[in-house]
């Protein structure tokens, strides 16, 4: 596990930090009948102390939100130990509040009533509820909107209401599940800035914050410590101490270097998971694929080959230029690497000779390049084509391949993977797909 020593004073209490959460050897798996278990988290260790903001950084599907539910006590892990304030956690943890991505407000209640809900559930007297709710609403910048309804508020204001509802109970630990991802860029930036100012000024009535994000810059801007998650199953691949005091400036050279470093660590992981393996390997054959249209991948390759990149780009700068987030850019890079059309190297993406050839080729040649790449590098595609070639009617039910995928991943990932393969196979003229019959088939070549 990688770590960077903190060389500056962070916003922590001068007293010795209190251990709030300790998780050891956490594993979360879901049983799939007679099939192998679907493992979401494996061998995860996590410790949270008072006085720190900790980020869980990783792609969607890496188990970050599942870990958040385990920390809160809403979900018991399949195996492993979970401690809250030194005692084994059994059920929902007292002193933990959560802020969701989707706001989760009751539309028929006013701002004041939405914020008071948690206090009402705890049996707090009405006058005290009203006072605490008004204080929380004022704290997060919504004073004067107490009697407004959610439909009358912007997305950013609704998320502030969600934040006030979490803060009003004065939790020891505030859990935030991608709280800014549903907001536009400017609104998210303003809310992040306000939240960090309140934290730095010790005005937030919480001891610690645990935030799930897939935005690298967001994690570096907000967090004192970052746990970088790998996927399939989710594991803590790296732990980083952020060596900057608040407020942080995203354009500072040291900040950009740190962001670059995280991109490098994450692309190292991608290189490891997309290294060449024997085509018979089960892990390679049943790898989940993102919903990725070919035109999007082709567009990125065309951008990379053109000025100013000339075939190679720094991932953070490319993401900023194209306004892509981690969950959008890394699946593109991973897929291009899987197809041997690009390489991910220490936070950079570089077109291979095949990738450059694809960009420069006419349509028929592009189809041929992709066809050869799919057969050589995506075993499931080769398997589908082989089955179709062997059948007298050159047809095969998709259910067969979908069931095989579901032995190794969730039904949603299996569906997305097969849909991606259908799109790629059609483009490369390897096979076609009959939606109504749910069958792969080969076109007559006569």
Provide a descriptive summary of the structure in words:
The chain has helices spanning 64-72, 111-121, 126-139, 155-167, 185-200, 216-222, 253-273, 282-285, 294-305, 315-322, 326-338, 353-360, 363-377, 379-390, 398-406, 411-427, and strands at 19-32, 35-49, 53-57, 79-84, 87-88, 96-99, 173-177, 208-213, 225-230, 235-241, 312-314, 342-345, 348-351, 395-397, 432-434, 439-441. It has 446 residues and is of the alpha/beta class. The protein has two domains: 19-265, P-loop containing nucleotide triphosphate hydrolases (Rossmann fold, 3-Layer(aba) Sandwich); 294-441, no CATH class. The strands form four sheets. A six-stranded mixed beta sheet has the order 6-7-8-3-9-10, sandwiched between helices. It has a four-stranded antiparallel beta sheet with strand order 2-1-4-5, with helices on one face. Strand 1 and strand 2 form a beta hairpin. The termini are far apart.
Keywords:
single chain, alpha/beta, Rossmann fold, 2 domains, six-stranded mixed β-sheet, four-stranded antiparallel β-sheet, globular, disordered N terminus
């Amino acid at each position: 596990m990688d770590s960077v020593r903190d060389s500056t004073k962070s916003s922590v209490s001068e007293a010795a930090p209190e251990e709030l959460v300790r998780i050891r050897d956490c594993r979360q798996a879901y049983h799939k009948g007679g099939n192998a278990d679907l493992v979401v988290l494996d061998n995860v260790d996590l410790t949270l102390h008072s006085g720190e903001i900790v980020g869980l950084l990783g792609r969607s599907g890496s188990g970050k939100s599942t870990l958040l539910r385990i920390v809160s006590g809403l979900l018991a892990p399949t195996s492993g130990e979970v401690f809250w304030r030194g005692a084994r956690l059994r059920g929902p943890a007292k002193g933990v509040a959560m802020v969701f991505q989707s706001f989760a407000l009751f539309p028929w209640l006013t701002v004041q009533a939405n914020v008071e809900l948690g206090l009402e559930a705890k049996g707090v007297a009405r006058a005290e509820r009203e006072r605490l709710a008004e204080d929380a609403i004022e704290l997060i910048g919504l004073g004067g909107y107490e009697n407004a309804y959610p439909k009358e508020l912007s997305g950013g204001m609704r998320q502030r209401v969600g934040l006030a509802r979490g803060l009003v109970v004065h939790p020891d630990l505030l859990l935030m599940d991608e709280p800014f991802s549903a907001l536009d860029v400017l609104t998210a930036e303003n809310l992040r800035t306000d939240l960090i100012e309140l934290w730095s000024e010790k005005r937030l009535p919480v001891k610690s914050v645990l935030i799930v994000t897939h935005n690298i810059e967001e994690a570096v801007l907000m967090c004192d410590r970052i746990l970088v998650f790998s996927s399939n199953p989710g594991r803590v691949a790296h732990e980083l101490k952020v060596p900057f005091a608040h407020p942080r400036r995203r354009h500072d050279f040291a900040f950009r270097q740190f962001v670059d470093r995280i991109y490098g660590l994450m692309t190292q992981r991608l290189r490891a998971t997309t290294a060449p393996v024997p085509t018979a390997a089960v892990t390679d054959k049943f790898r989940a694929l993102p919903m990725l249209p070919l035109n999007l991948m082709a567009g990125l390759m065309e951008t990379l080959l053109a000025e100013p990149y000339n075939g190679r780009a720094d991932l953070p700068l490319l993401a900023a230029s194209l306004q892509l987030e981690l969950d959008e850019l890394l699946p593109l890079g991973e897929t291009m690497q899987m197809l041997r059309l690009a390489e991910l190297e220490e936070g950079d993406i570089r077109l291979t000779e095949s990738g450059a050839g694809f960009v420069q080729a006419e349509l028929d040649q592009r189809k041929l390049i992709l066809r050869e790449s799919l057969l050589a590098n995506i075993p499931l595609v080769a398997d589908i084509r082989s089955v179709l070639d062997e059948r007298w009617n050159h047809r095969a039910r998709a259910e067969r391949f979908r069931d095989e995928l579901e032995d190794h991943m969730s039904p949603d990932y299996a569906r997305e993977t097969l849909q991606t393969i259908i799109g790629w196979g059609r483009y490369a003229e390897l096979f076609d797909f009959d939606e109504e019959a749910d069958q792969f088939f080969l076109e007559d070549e006569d």
